[in-house]
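Hi everyone,

Forwarding the result from last night's run.
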Amino acid sequence: MGDRRVAVVTGSARGIGRAVLERLAADHDCVVHGRRDVEAAAEVARLVAGAGAETLVVTGDLADPEQVARLADAVLDRFGRVDTLVANAAATAFRPLTSVAGRHSRLTFATVVDSLVELVHRLAPAMGPGGRILTIGGLDARFAQAGHGLLGGAKAALEALTRSWAVELGPLGVTANTIVPGPVLTDSLEAYLGGREDVRALLVDHTPVGRLCTPADIAAVAAFLVSPAAAMITGQTVTVDGGISAQGGPWAAMRDLW
């Protein structure tokens, strides 16, 4: 491994997580995690290996505590340490809060919140000075968005936990921050839009820079926040949304379109 660091990015077989891991591969050995798509995870591993990274692929459902423990154990067995932990994985039921059941809430909070609490518990002792925890939040934690009530609640909890980790782990030289992306051009967004080009156009119209974020936009900020240059940034929430939240976001108008 030499001077390379070790990065664990949950949900890195696709979307934002994949882009973050590809960016970090320049100076990190990489743990690729996906829920069940072994082929997609293996493809990411091949890409980051091409950048010189030693790789480890671990698949598993983070809603299952045993699989969370298996991920942590596999990382420590292979590398013996962790320098960067990026919590990107999420799962939920996109439906009104008045129609969700307990199983939907358990899935969402187990995947987004409980799994990370366990990962930090297991992996933080393997972080030294310069360690980085980065959580991927969401605008749905700030604005009511159709079908996003559960996920927004979980992401809000994620932000609160991250601030506490910043305080608790700061004396050890470990920082903890949250990135809040705006609408990002991923397959998840495409599924949410359901082919509604009028909604896509509305999102673009409400974004001052005139385009939606890409996974690479988020990855660029992530790479900075986990770098030595960001050593004095901790306990912060950094919004990367092209300015869409600066004017309140388009969610009310979107409710009318839906």
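The chain has a mean pLDDT of 92.

Cheers,
N.
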